[in-house]
Each structure stands twice: as C-alpha cells, then as structure tokens.
Amino acid sequence: MGDESLAGHHSPGRRSARGSDRKTRRRDRRPRAGGFGGGSAPAAPRADADDADACREAALTLLDAAARSSGALARRLVDKGFDTNVVDQVVDRLTRLGLVDDQAYAQDLLRSCLHRTMGERGVLSEMTRKGLDPGLAAQVVAQASREGLFVDSAYELGRKVARKTAGLDLKVRKRRFWSAGSRKGHSPGLLNQVAADLFVSDDSLD
Question: What do you get for the CA distance between the two ends of the chain, in Å?
Fold first, then answer.
C-alpha cells in the first residue's frame, strides 16, 4: 500500500481530531461539584418547596413504596428539596394520623434483624441507620435483650455455621463462627458461650 493510501487511513489531522474529541468527552465526564468524591449533590431548588400539600403527596408516595421511620421519611423529603419546616409539619401530621409509627416500625425491624441472626450491637446500628430515634432504638433493643432474643439469635447462627462447616478442623469452624458473629454484632461473651456449647470435638448437630 502506498504512502498516500496510508496517510488516508492514519492522517495526523484525523488523529488530532480524535484526540480533541476524547479530551472533550473526558472533560464532560469530570465529576461535578457535589458529585462522586464530593459528597451528596444538593437537591435542586423546587418551586413548591414550601407547599405542604406537595410535600404530603411526596411523603405518601414514599410510604406506599416502603415503610419508613419518621427520621428516614424526613431525610428523603428534605433530599427532594422540600423546606425543613414544612417537612417537620408533614411528618408530625402523618404521625398523629398513624400513617407513620416509629414504635411499630422498630418492632418490625427488630424481627427482621433477628431473622437474619443479628446481635444486639448490629440491631442497634441498623435501627439508627434506618432513621429511628436513638432513645427508642436503645429501648427496643434493651427489651429484646431482657427477653433473651439475642441469645436465641446467636445460637441459631451457631447452628447454621456448625452445619455449613461440618467436617472441617475445629479451629477453622470456631474462627468462621466468630467472624460471622462479629459481623452481625453479637457480643464477644455471648459468642464464647455459643462456641463452647456447639463447637466441640466429635460434635454432632442436627
């Protein structure tokens, strides 16, 4: 192939144009303020930010999608651009109507966490993350602890790990149980108790 033909396929002008295009695209992909690496982007200003009716409709739509604590609902509404004072009024009104019930939500969340064999510390962290008042979360967790629910949860986790690790070296089995129990927020003392009861030489678990 001749020099002219090669130049037609790989001309410096075309390389320069392609390079310029790539630079432009890279600039376009550059993170904007508040984007990745810069924190959450602020909500765009909205004309109805102080409209209680619009805020209430948005709240009901969110509640239709999933049950939420009052704290989580308020955060979502603020993220949508509604005025904080309007959000507080709407959430308070929905709470008085019984459409938002933090106590019931906390109990449902507790049951879900126990079903996942979570421990006291793990449940408390999950409740706080879900927007529940720390005082209410601590109260619900303390009651569950008094009822022995976290002990039951830890033993259930121990039985699951024991079944999955049957036939492995005893130290390996205990280590895997400890790892799982720590991730789920069980206390070290309780994990020691369960390990001593369930992970013994020549154990046989149903």
Answer: 77
Question: What is the Cα–Cα distance from 55 to 36, expressed in whole angstroms?
Answer: 28
How far is 61 from 43, CA to CA, in rounded Å? Answer: 18
Task: Provide the Cα torsion 53, 57, 58, 61; round to 10°.
Answer: 170
pTM value is: 0.73
Tokens 């320069």 map to which residue? 16
pLDDT by residue, tens only, the chain of 206 residues: 444 433 444 444 444 444 444 444 444 443 333 333 344 555 566 888 889 999 999 999 999 999 999 999 999 999 999 999 999 999 999 999 999 999 999 999 999 999 999 999 999 999 999 999 999 999 999 999 999 999 999 999 999 999 999 999 999 999 999 999 999 999 999 999 999 999 987 544 44
Q: Distance between CA 127 and CA 132 in Å, rounded?
A: 6
